[in-house]
Design a protein that fits this description.
alpha/beta, seven-stranded mixed beta sheet
């Protein structure tokens, strides 16, 4: 068995043993262990939340005083009392109002694990995924508080520099990060961001 396949099997087994909906839960666990950006009492919005692994992780991190709200085209069903879910398309014009109606305020943290329906044509899949990331960044103008943090997925490719430049212009700090739970051969890349300033802010080099 190849190393990447062995790693995938390991995290799949751990997810089953620990009750997580998906092995992807460990990507967020590892990222938060490194950067500590989700804290007790936080309000977190999770885009691309199905099947719910990241929401489960958030539930444990934010405690009873916090709230995690997931958004996905697919319905997500979780029993945690500090988790709510919305079955919505991120391009739906009502997504901001729907979220604010649930949260009552802007989020402390925005997460995005969005991925398009894959066509197998890499250039197209990469472009569509980056567009989804930019959509969440646009939504953050209305949904993320000043100084808030974020964790975005972005397929690695020719637009990666564009993604990095826009994130660095929007946050005080933005850095690419590949969690150990991600397969080494995967094109999947994440960006950890802190200190939301808004997408119109001038770029600085961290």
């Amino acid at each position: 068995m190849r190393l990447d396949e062995a790693k995938k099997d390991l995290y799949r087994r751990l997810a089953k043993e620990q009750g997580y909906k998906s092995r992807a839960a460990f990507k967020l666990i590892e990222a938060n262990e490194k950067y500590r950006f989700i804290k007790n009492g936080d309000l977190v919005i999770d885009f691309g939340s199905a099947p719910g692994g990241w929401l489960q992780v958030c539930s444990g991190l934010i405690g009873a005083r916090g709230l995690a709200v997931g958004v996905d085209l697919a319905a997500v069903h979780l029993k945690e009392k500090n988790v709510k879910t919305l079955t919505l398309n991120v391009h739906d014009p009502s997504v901001v109002d729907s979220l604010l109606a649930v949260t009552g305020r802007k989020a402390d943290v925005v997460l995005s694990d969005l991925s398009p329906t894959l066509t197998g044509v890499w250039e197209l899949d990469h472009t569509r995924q980056v567009d989804l990331t930019f959509r969440v960044l646009d939504l953050s103008e209305m949904l993320l508080r000043k100084g808030g943090n974020a964790f975005f997925k972005a397929f690695d490719g020719e637009r990666s520099l564009e993604v990095r430049a826009r994130l660095r212009s929007s946050f005080a700090f933005a850095r690419p990060y590949k969690p150990p739970a991600s397969r080494r051969a995967s094109s999947e890349l994440y960006f950890y961001c802190e200190g939301w300033r808004g997408s119109g802010a001038p770029e600085t080099t961290p």
